[in-house]
Amino acid sequence: MNTNSYVDFFRQTSPYIHTHRGKTFVIALDGDTVAHGNFHRIIHDIALLQSLGIRILLVHGGRPQIDQRIAQSNIESTFHNQLRITDAAAMHCVKEALGSTRWQIESELSMGLPNSPMHGAQIRVIGGNFITAKPLGVRDGVDYQHTGKVRRVDAAAIQQQLQTGGLVLMSPIGFSPTGEAFNLSYQDVATETAIALNAEKLILVTEASGIVENGDLLRSLSVPDVDRLRNQCADAPQKMLLNTAYQACSQGVTRVHMVSCAVDGALLSELFTREGSGTLVMQDHSEVIRAAAIDDVGGILDLISPLEQQQILVKRSRELLETEISRFTLVVHPEGFLLGCAALYPMADKTEGEIACVATHPEFLGRGIASRLLEHIEAEAVQMGITKLFVLTTQTAHWFLEKGFVETAVKDLPKQKQSLYNYQRNSRIFSKHL
Ligand SMILES: CC(C)(COP(=O)(O)OP(=O)(O)OC[C@H]1O[C@@H](n2cnc3c(N)ncnc32)[C@H](O)[C@@H]1OP(=O)(O)O)[C@@H](O)C(=O)NCCC(=O)NCCS
To answer: Which atom, in ligand 1's list, is nearest to the CA of 340?
Structure first.
């Protein structure tokens, strides 16, 4: 990558960096991911997320590691309905396998050699008895013994640890008030923890790229889509992902991402690029158009300042924006950051209005954002009794022409605007009857 494209790429990630900072992500890594050749790169990427101010809670699985340990011990592993029946001997293997997997992850997170991506990361890994478990019990006449499920998550204790800046690492083992340990599914631990913490994201890292239908990777799904797909899905790993996403989203987690451990950098591209890399399940699926509020001033400034520097837009100070904020309409990404803005200034006679400061985030151009803003503002203007809109522009004439505006002259502007017309800037003037 040359320096320019590197700088461009870095700038394009900025809305995502701002949005993710301070948020809580639960990242679930299945046992295959921990055993994968890419695992150390995934750990570097997780360390990077942590250094960007994201609160990370890692939950690891260990099914292949447990299978291996059981095979080495020459004991029989039994399953019913794809769930392991954990007898006392198997539980011993579960503890050994998950313990050793956990130390492997902790040691990877502790790396810090100069010239390695982990240099300076200094991650503090925190663990504890955060999960209270209960036995799965007897189902279809089958006693699952030490196989359990999550009964309670000590969210307050986890929050306290995350607030200190540590990374919480959870293994799929929980303890009952009677002092017994239970073998849990890592998906259950991750989902229940994400729900209890009210996490912004649950990220499922497995070998699958995401949800595939008729050979196509589905980039984005609504919760009803997930429900439909999980009911017709015959593939066990896909069904597991769909069931986990459905459970998490229907209990308050707003985003579930599915990314592949086999694709280098999949986690970062999912979180920091528009295209993503896997499947995203969202509760609120669409961008929102809404009136701007005072808290949006910073976001609007970030969006319009580069355009002001290029003299495409007229300079507005923070103070001016603060007083004029009620004139602005915004398009907001489902993640909460600003995609576009536009302002409507009604004139003194209230029958004419000026459209100004129409801008779309450079990463999201050509997706109809400005068109939707204009339609919204036109409808708003009609409601206000405005019958004619005008706009002054230096570089976007054709865009307005294509929206039904026609060129007009300074003398046709409302009087209050004529006296302010900047002949040096020499903007072209367009108007549209509503
Ligand atoms: C003009 C602008 C707001 C369009 O935003 P957008 O969200 O990409 O717009 P839409 O997706 O609704 O429309 C895209 C279409 O407009 C075209 N378009 C974009 N800028 C244009 C311009 N300056 N002149 C002519 N057409 C333009 C695109 O080519 C695209 O058409 P296509 O799909 O046929 O190729 C955006 O380019 C921008 O922020 N420009 C800088 C600020 C500016 O000039 N504002 C207007 C002055 S108030």
So the answer is: 7
Closest CA to 334 of 273, 372, 282, 298: 282
CA 137 to ligand 1 center in whole angstroms: 61
The Cα–Cα gap between 207 and 263 comes to 9
Q: Residues, the chain, total?
A: 434
Measured by CA distance, the residue closest to atom 42 of ligand 1 is 359
CB atoms within 10 A of CB 306: 13
Q: For atom 16 of ligand 1, which residue has the closest CA? A: 399
Q: Containing domain of residue 195, as a range?
A: 3-282
Q: What is the pTM of this model?
A: 0.72
For a mutational test of ligand 1's pocket, the pick from 308, 399, 427, 432, i.e. the residue with the most ligand atoms closer than 8 A to its C-beta, is 399
pLDDT over 80 at 224, yes or no? yes
Strand-pair partners of 181: 175
Of 253, 282, 311, the residue at which a domain comes to its end is: 282
Tell me the CA distances in angstroms from 433 to 114, 310, 357, one per residue in order. Answer: 65, 30, 20
Of the CA atoms within 13 Å of residue 194, those in its CB half-sphere come to 31
**pLDDT for position 335:** 76
CATH number at residue 354: 3.40.630.30
> What is the pLDDT, as a whole number, of residue 285?
62
Same structural domain, 387 and 407: yes
pLDDT in tens, 280-339: 998 866 788 999 999 999 999 999 999 999 989 999 999 999 999 999 999 998 778 899
Q: Is the CB of 372 under 6 A from ligand 1?
A: no
355 sits in which H/E element? strand 352-360
Q: Is 334 found in the same domain as 263?
A: no
Element (H, E) at 6: helix 3-12
Q: Report how many domains make up the chain.
A: 2
Would you state the torsion angle of the CA atoms of residues 408, 413, 419, 423, taken in this order, to the nearest 10 degrees? -20
